[in-house]
Amino acid sequence: FVSFFILTLWGALVLASPFLLYEIWAFVAGALTEKERRYVLIFWPLSLIFFAAGCAFGYFVVAPVSLKFFLSFSSEVMIPLITVSRYLSFVGSLVISFGVVFELPLILWFLTKIGVASPAFLSQKRKHALVLIFIVSAILTPPDVFSQLLMAIPLIFLYETGVVLSRLAHSTKARPHSS
Hints:
By secondary structure, the protein is mainly α. The protein has 7 helices and no strands.
């Protein structure tokens, strides 16, 4: 019963999300300047696309590999018993985790736009970022190396994409000051 309730709740949230997002936008838009509205109108759809891509990657790539890995431990003595609620919890946490971490390029772009980060800073701190990526991957994925690598490798690519977006944001930010 609880599993059906949770699935229904998630389904309702997904179906209601366009209306919820519109209401949030209607509330926030009145307080924003024209420049801030342009940033939101660029950032908002991109963040939804990146989140959906991360969720899809987590569901279609990582979840099957992780499940196969964990089920490979079965033997005559140990028989895996997966309940619906544990399956939903496992897959749901993977999907949401991947959706969130796929926002990394947009976060780096945003930090550059507001002046907190720069392309030079991000390039200089690449080694630190790699260590942090593996730590975050270890925390957010199940305790197996395959899942961790399946999160860390795309995150490294997404970090590099974020550095490129940061360079673009930095060059467009510098252009008006030079004229």
